[in-house]
Every structure is written in structure tokens, then in C-alpha cells.
Amino acid sequence: MLKKLFLVTLLFALVVSGFIGISIFVVGDFDDTQLKLLGTTACVGAFCLTGLASVTGSSTRWFRPLPYLGIGSSVAALAMILLLIWESWDTNGINEDIYFKVLACLVVVALSIAHLSLLSAVQRMSGLLRWCQRGTPLVIVSVATLLIVGILSLQEFDKELYLRLLGVLVILDVLGTIFVGVFALKSPGPKNMVLRRRADLIRERLGK
Fold this sequence. Notes:
With 208 residues, the protein is mostly helical. The chain is 80% helix and 0% strand. Helix 2 crosses helix 4 and helix 3 runs antiparallel to helix 4.
């Protein structure tokens, strides 16, 4: 129920923000308010995409809580950014450093869950692809964890070692994602494999 409500809200927000953005580009004069509206439109579109990606993942047990976390982090990050765009954030109420750290962590969580969801949505039977699908999510989680740790307490770590490790994991993340995408296109899906097996059986019987 929550997923359906989010999808309806997402589509409505995308249509409204898209209409506003197009109207500004066509007849607007790009004053301060219209620039804020364009920024709002861009942020709504970006976080609607992360939220949409979060609900497209696998239905396995370990993955079921992640779509809700992805939706929540996307909405929370969007709300915090909109407060900054429209200058509605009370700087006296919350420490500025804490605010931006929380915002950065929410963005990392939203992007990571969207990434995990898109990878888990690939359903193929290739052995090499299966290993890529198992290894790449671990790398994604590691990258997200390192980023969050760095955001919260980078001063307490060796920056050079941190950046080296993060760079290696990011490269592995990119390679794993590319391999999953390539093998997913070349490898037949479960339904196609079943159809091929049935076709082979029919050919064998006809041959006899």
C-alpha cells in the first residue's frame, strides 16, 4: 500500500515539477523565485528517481525493508534540500555542520539503496553473473559505509589511506555494475531458458 501511494505521489510530483520547469524555460525571466523553482524541480526529479529505483528491487526477504528505507531517505533528503533552497532552515535551531552531515548521509543512503535495487532487479541464471550480483552489493554497502564514516568523522582517520581504499572500492563498484549490466543483456533469463529447454525436448521427440 505504501509503495503504491509513493508511486502515485511520485508521478504527480514529477508531472507538476516538470510543468513548472517547462513553463519557466518558455516564458520565465529567471528571477530569484523562478531559479528557486527550477532548483526545486531538479531536486524533486532526482529524488523521485532514487525513490522509484528503490521500489524496483527483488522481493527476497533480506531486501524487503530496503525499499522503505530508500523511500524514507529520499523524502528526508529532499525536504532538507528544499529548506535550504527556500531559505526556510532556522540556523539557530540546529548546528549547521550537523545539518549538512545528516543531509549528506541521507543522500548516500538514498543513492546506495537505489543502486542495490536496480542490481537486484536483474534476474538471470548465468554462473558468472550470479557471482557478480553477490559481490557487487557488498562493495556498494562498503562504499556507502566508508562515505558515511568519512562524512561523520574524517578528521579522525588517515585521509590518504581512506581515499585510497575508497577509490579502490568505487572502481570495483563501477566494474561490478557494468559486468552485471553486460551479462544481463547477453545471458538468457529464466523464462527464456525454460522455453529453450522445452523447444529442445520437442526437437528431440520429433527427431525420434
